[in-house]
Amino acid sequence: MASIPQTMKGVIIEKTGGTEVLQHKTDLPLPQLKDGEVLVKNDYIGVNYIDTYFRSGLYPTGGFPYTLGREAEGTIVKAASSGELYGLKEGDRVVWMHVGAYGEYTAVPTTKVVKIPDSLPPKVGASALLQGLTALTLIRVAHHVNKGDWVLVHAAAGGTGQWLCKLLKSVGANTIATASTPEKLALATKAGATHVINYSSEDVKAKVMELTGDKGVIAVFDGVGKSTFDLSLSCLARLGSLLSFGNASGAPEPLTIARLSAKNIRLMRPTLFNFIVDRDELESYTKELFDIVLKDKLEPSIHEVYPLSEVARAHNDLEGRKTTGKLLLDPSK
Ligand code: NDP
């Protein structure tokens, strides 16, 4: 195993704002290990929309300097000398979900780290982890989708959207997917959507009602937020569920709950980090996800592996709706 350097490349922010606040450094000190932590040399860092919320100030960082990034794939290069290690050791290929991913090395509590199956090719772990687990928990726990159910997925060509289409296909759902361009709709179909609607140019509600025989869908998976919230409510069937799980277009306006009574609608604002809290949950959901990926030979859709030094371009592309699938960062560049 290569020796561990004194300093590393990484990206920090010292205030919130636009992409100009992202500072790429080449001389950051390596994180110090605490009890029950492992030092991971990150090979691929996953970019997620939530990173832009912490950068912009929509979500509080709790202090500065702050290192963005919530997931990565890499190798354990050192383990703490005390604390519960759950069998993790130097040399293990792992994925992890925690904080502080935008760097060459991260100290991660072992409760947040899992080994990757040997058969999983490089990049697949980082591409699948956070967005795949989000999709899995949304369709299993937030609203359990059954074979033959009609559901609606917004921004279906995005990172999370494509995982939703893939996992819904494996369940046998009738998935109506929305996206803003014909190219994105084609990707949603490739990922497993059974019907597609361009929400920039078509009447989504009319088409959903036509497809479902005027019943509406039993669940809407809405990561777009402000601009689709009312539309999502209008597309639901009686007793349907609106899973409002993100704010890509801005946070939805406050809701008068009486609006839900028209169709006895269930509304949830789920976050992955409240579905996966302890290590047992992380291990069991990750195992289930990677088992599906391997069994169904699911290929992650990777938009681009950006050099970490070009993280501002990655954020601009994501927020500018220029991307499809997963964005990764290579911390060595
Ligand atoms: P995506 O790859 O899906 O990118 C966002 C997509 O949203 C865009 O490509 C675009 O697709 C669509 N979009 C619609 N309106 C806008 C807008 N005004 N500005 C920008 N994008 C817009 O990102 P992620 O997969 O990383 O995240 C998707 C959503 O899921 C986010 O809201 C994120 O916060 C949420 N999320 C929530 C989690 C949770 O635990 N609750 C976990 C993971 C993700 P198009 O051009 O087709 O409209």
How would you sum up this structure, described in words?
With 333 residues, the chain is α/β, with parallel strands linked by helices. The chain folds into 2 domains: 7-129 and 278-330, Medium-chain alcohol dehydrogenases, catalytic domain (Quinone Oxidoreductase, Chain A, domain 1, Alpha-Beta Complex), CATH 3.90.180.10; 143-269, NAD(P)-binding Rossmann-like Domain (Rossmann fold), CATH 3.40.50. Helix content is 29%, strand content 27%. The chain contains 9 helices and 15 strands. It has helices spanning 49-56, 124-142, 159-171, 182-191, 204-211, 229-235, 272-275, 279-295, 311-319, and strands at 7-12, 23-29, 37-47, 71-79, 93-97, 105-109, 113-115, 150-153, 174-179, 195-198, 217-222, 236-244, 266-268, 302-307, 326-330. Strands 3, 4, 5, 6, 7, 14 and 15 form a 7-stranded mixed β-sheet that branches. Strand 11 (217-222), helix 6 (229-235) and strand 12 (236-244) form a beta-alpha-beta unit. Helix 3 (159-171) packs parallel to helix 4 (182-191) and helix 5 (204-211) runs parallel beside helix 6. The longest helix has 19 residues, at 124-142. The protein is globular and about 65 Å long. The model has no long low-confidence stretch (mean pLDDT 97). The protein binds NADPH dihydro-nicotinamide-adenine-dinucleotide phosphate. NADPH dihydro-nicotinamide-adenine-dinucleotide phosphate is lined by residues 48-50, 131, 134, 155, 157-161, 179-180, 184, 223-224, 227, 245-249, 270-272, 318-319, 321, 323.
